[in-house]
Each structure stands twice: as structure tokens, then as C-alpha cells.
Design brief:
This protein is mainly alpha-helical. The chain is built from seven helices and no strands. Helix 1 runs antiparallel to helix 2, helix 4 runs parallel beside helix 7 and helix 6 runs antiparallel to helix 7. The longest helix is centred in the middle third of the chain and has 20 residues. The termini are far apart.
Length: 189
């Protein structure tokens, strides 16, 4: 069994980051969608700005410029860094609707990254003990770096979240593996 045609890849209508990946569930007043007393919420019409319309379809060639520049970067063996920059820039601008929209769509990753950077800055300025205490993670003081980072994973991106949180969690795990492979064993350094 087999196929008669090779798969040519995704069309230009398929985004790299799906539009449904937005983190925050929408609600009119920011409250939970169902009341805590178990009663059904009253039928209240949504104001026009709260109605979610399907996103407009993007141009079928919106990835072309980014792909071309990325191909130039790859075929240069990684030496044409300007092509890589242009590829990322054009992807963000044409495919996601700009930097602000791209950042909004990856909100969990942004929050996890900011939390980790904040922790590492605190650890470099005040020491690991102080940084862990600031997060109420005193039980990790004096533990090996792998255990500290495993505890930080659970703190910044707990298990069982959205797909975006899962992506951030996986990146965190890979960072721990990279640190261990590089021989980093002391969080204060």
C-alpha cells in the first residue's frame, strides 16, 4: 500500500501558529462563563465588540517571501544571517498580522519566558537561595540544578495546561537538558 503522489506540504492558507491557540478564553466581563451557584446564566445578548468573528483568510502566497529567505539561509549553510532575519520578519509581518498579534498568540510562552528570566536575574543579583525563597520554593534550596529547574517547570508552567503551555513546558525541559549537557551544575553561576 502506498500513495501515488508525494505530499507537497501545507498550503499558504495554513498558519504556523494556529489562530485557535489564543490562550485566554473570551468572556464579556472577564468573569467565568458559568455562575458558581449551579444556575444557568441568563440569556444576555453580547455587545457587538464581544462577538468573535472567524478570522479572514490570508493570502495564499503570504508565506512565500519568508520561505524564500529561509531557503537562502539554509542553503548558505547558516552563514547568511540577514536572510534568516528577513524570513522571521516577513513571517511575523505577513503571516501573523504583526509583532503584537504574534506575541498575543503565544502569551503562555511569553509569560513563562519572562518568569524564568526574572528568576535568573534575581538569582544572579541576590543568589539562588533568595530567588527560590521569593517564589516560595525553599524546599529546592541546596538541591541539584536539575531538581531546581524541574521545580521551576512545575511553578511556571504546571502540567495539564493548554497546547501553548505544553509547548512552553517542553522548551523548558529541553533547556534543562541543554544545561546538563553543557556541564552547568551551579545555579549561582
Amino acid at each position: 500500500m502506498g500513495t501515488s503522489n508525494a505530499y507537497g506540504g501545507a498550503s499558504g492558507l495554513t498558519p504556523l501558529i494556529p489562530s485557535w491557540l489564543d490562550d485566554e478564553p473570551s468572556s464579556v466581563d472577564g468573569a467565568a462563563s458559568s455562575p458558581s451557584d449551579g444556575q444557568e446564566p441568563p440569556d444576555v445578548p453580547l455587545p457587538p465588540q464581544a462577538i468573535s468573528y472567524p478570522p479572514k483568510l490570508g493570502s495564499s502566497d503570504r508565506f512565500q517571501s519568508a520561505r524564500n529567505n529561509f531557503t537562502r539561509f539554509v542553503t548558505s549553510g547558516g552563514s547568511d544571517r540577514k536572510s534568516l532575519g528577513r524570513a522571521v520578519s516577513r513571517y511575523v509581518r505577513k503571516s501573523t498580522g504583526g509583532a503584537r498579534r504574534a506575541a498575543t498568540r503565544m502569551g503562555s510562552s511569553r509569560r513563562v519566558g519572562a518568569g524564568l528570566v526574572g528568576f535568573l536575574n534575581n538569582a544572579s543579583e541576590n543568589g539562588a537561595i533568595q530567588a527560590l525563597s521569593a517564589l516560595d520554593l525553599d524546599t529546592l534550596v541546596g538541591r541539584p540544578i536539575e531538581e531546581i529547574f524541574s521545580g521551576l517547570i512545575d511553578y511556571f508552567c504546571p502540567d495539564g495546561g493548554s497546547i501553548d503551555e505544553g509547548i512552553a513546558r517542553e522548551a523548558f525541559v529541553e533547556t534543562i537538558a541543554d544545561l546538563a549537557a553543557a556541564g552547568v551544575t551551579d545555579i549561582d553561576h
